């Protein structure tokens, strides 16, 4: 699965937040943010911390290009897990 975090970088600009501030507030390492900047995968724990810090969902901060249906199913499961209230009536 190819991942793009371009939405995250735009979100940081919109919130007038620097990457260093994100690292500190979300308690993630500089190395992790660098991996994301290069479009590499990070753990769901990291993504969840960033979502909570920025008050957003996975869909707000990343774009995933799925290579198969299993990857798509896992992404949707994790998307729901990160913010289940988006899907409650």
Descriptive overview:
There is one protein chain. 61% of the residues lie in helices and 7% in strands. It has 6 helices and 2 strands. It has a two-stranded antiparallel ribbon. The mean pLDDT is 83.
Q: Helical percent range? A: 55-70%
Low-confidence stretches: none
Spatial arrangement of strands, main beta sheet: 1-2
How far apart lie the N and C ends? 31 Å
Number of helices: 6
Main beta sheet, described?
2 strands, antiparallel
The count of strands amounts to 2
What is the chain-wise order of helices and strands?
EHHHHHEH
Strand content: 5-15%
* Class computed from helices, strands and strand pairing: mainly alpha
Query: What's the rounded overall pLDDT mean?
Result: 83
What is the alpha-carbon Rg in Å?
A: 13 Å
Taken from the alpha-carbon principal axes, the silhouette is: globular
In short:
It is built from six helices and two strands, in the order βαααααβα.
Give the helix/strand layout.
Layout: E1 2-4, H1 6-14, H2 19-26, H3 30-37, H4 44-54, H5 58-61, E2 63-65, H6 69-82
Antiparallel strand pairs: 1-2
Features:
89 residues; 6 helices; 2 strands; two-stranded antiparallel sheet; mainly alpha; 7% strand; globular
């Amino acid at each position: 699965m190819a991942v793009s975090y371009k939405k995250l970088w735009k979100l940081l600009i919109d919130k007038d937040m620097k990457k260093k501030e994100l690292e500190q507030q979300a308690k993630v390492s500089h190395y992790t943010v660098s991996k994301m900047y290069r479009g590499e995968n990070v753990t769901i724990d990291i993504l969840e911390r960033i979502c909570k810090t920025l008050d957003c969902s996975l869909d707000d901060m990343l774009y995933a290009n799925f290579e198969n249906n299993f990857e798509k199913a896992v992404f949707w499961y994790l998307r729901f897990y990160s913010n289940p209230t988006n899907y409650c009536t």
